[in-house]
Amino acid sequence: MGSEAGKRNDPARRQRIVDATLEAIAQFGVTGTTHRRIAGIAQVPLGSVTYYFETLDALITAAFLQLAEQSSQDFAARMAQATDPSSAKDAIIDIIAGSVWATPRTLLLSYELYAFAARHPPVAAVMRGWMGKSRAALERYFDPLTSRALDALVEGIGIHNSIDDHPLDRDAIRAIVDRIANSA
Length: 184
Hints:
Number of domains: 2
CATH topology of the largest domain: Tetracycline Repressor, domain 2
Shape: elongated
Number of strands: 0
Low-confidence stretches: 1-6
Strand content: under 5%
Structural class: mainly alpha
């Protein structure tokens, strides 16, 4: 009875578990993420993790879905500030060079998400949804093929910049975005 009362008095527990899963993945990778590590980070009893999520895969999928949704919202919010193709290019540059998407933590989680999605079809569907939302935001100003190229550019430069000894600066990113967007 005490355990059940604790669940009723902690409505944020499920969300803390999902957030802790992303933290565990960022710290240990998907392969090092365990129920025990998640429970420790979330500061909940181990049984709470399996109470809310039947399997570790289900929990990791929920966490990656949250990551994809938040990243999509951030991307769309920045793109929504654009009023024309020129300001849309500025938004893309901000997304790549700024902290909209390419934060070290989000990039690290994205690497893990891509690898996990390659072996888990439900997560691949999450990725396709994320890509679809990004492309839809870009298609307000660019044709579908250009939008696809710009979407790949956002992630590609972010990934490269995260490990490159000489990451591209805003001016170089602008030149590349201009080449792609202006060639359409």
